[in-house]
Amino acid sequence: MRTIRFLLQKEFSQIFRNKALLPMILIAPLLQLWILPLAADYEVKNVNIAIVDHDRSGASRDLLHAITSSGYFRMVGYSASYPQALKEIETDRADLILEIPLHFETNVVRQGHEELLVAVNAINGVKASIGASYLSKILQTFNAHLALQWQEMPNTNVRPSVEVISSNWFNPHLNYRFFMVPGILAVLVTLIGSYMTALNIVKEKEVGTIEQINVTPIKKHHFILGKLIPFWIIGMAVFTIGLFAIAMGLYGIVPVGSIVLLYFFLAVYLIAVLGFGLLISTYAATQQQAMSIAFFFIMIFILMSGLFTPIESMPGWAKVIAHLNPVTYFIEVMRMIVLKGSGLKDILPQIGIITLFALVFNGWAIWNYRKTS
């Protein structure tokens, strides 16, 4: 312990001596956690829609009011014909066209059905599909509302309908930030742990101090622990500030589950991530090599962790890579504890897998670090 204490004093002295390192470790991730959830939003709003209303009846006006008041659509044109509305799409001013036929209200009342034309600009496939889905749901809701009104009218052939009411669990208001903030916080902690430790031993090699350490009686595991513990403490501090100041203070995301359990998993996860960074540093000869290797793996970790794309929708080979990704399990646990209130029994599989990662990465780093002069 005395040897490790001296190593920790040395490491913290180096960290605090670098005036640019602490702001990069503490301030930059918190700014990213504040800004990224505002932009990383899959909810599409302000879809531009052009309207062609041949009927101009009370029912068509009610339908247009339901569309524009939903908050998802912005009417950019009220055209007299379909070719005129099509020009709005051709000039990229509109994303969708809704054409309401003549005698829309009359046919709905007398015959019980009517057809509407929806034309979608599919250049941006994601925006087109989501916008069309939103419009379809609004039309279905409007149709159910009309059926409910006309059931009470005499001499109508409208059959009774079943009203379906959905209940949103764990995120009642469908706030996308509740889904993104825990995942982004997990990724930022991973970035700090892997990048900083990947550069640590390599910096000793470039400066030349690694030769002085190699001729000392310090054992390999003492040296690795001296490199790991400072960034483990910094990672815990960054997570604490991000959780309480940004997630809870700014976005109002209060963990439903146990915060103690969350920190327990974080403690094990940081050991695994820091071990991975140290493993990279034992192979790299320069900081540029370490940054390149770490960047390669971190990009795979982020993109195949389930942060943006559900793992269930990935092909089979990608699912295998995702399940070999430690970030995947941290994001899962973050969302399980913060949003669902999961307990220890629920996250035991993830704890076991992360513990295995920690043993493999750190054991490999200790074995690969060779004290040669």
Kindly list the characteristics that best describe this protein.
single chain, 373 residues, alpha/beta, 14 helices, 4 strands, elongated
Fraction of residues in H or I helices: 55-70%
Instruction: Give the overall shape, derived from the CA principal axes.
Output: elongated
SSE order: HHEHEHEHEHHHHHHHHH
The quaternary state of the protein chains shown equals single chain
Strand order within the widest sheet?
2-1-3-4
Biggest sheet overview? 4 strands, mixed
Alpha-beta classification: alpha/beta
Measure the end-to-end span.
25 Å
Counted beta strands = 4
Mean pLDDT: 83
Beta percentage is: 5-15%
Fold and architecture overview:
The chain is α/β, with parallel strands linked by helices. Helix content is 66%, strand content 6%. The protein contains 14 helices and four strands. The protein has helices spanning 2-17, 21-39, 58-68, 82-90, 104-111, 125-151, 176-207, 209-214, 220-248, 259-283, 287-303, 316-323, 326-340, 344-368; strands spanning 47-53, 73-79, 96-100, 117-120. It has a four-stranded mixed sheet with strand order 2-1-3-4, sandwiched between helices. Strand 1 (47-53), helix 3 and strand 2 (73-79) form a beta-alpha-beta unit. It is elongated and about 95 Å long. Residues 160-164 have low confidence and may be disordered.
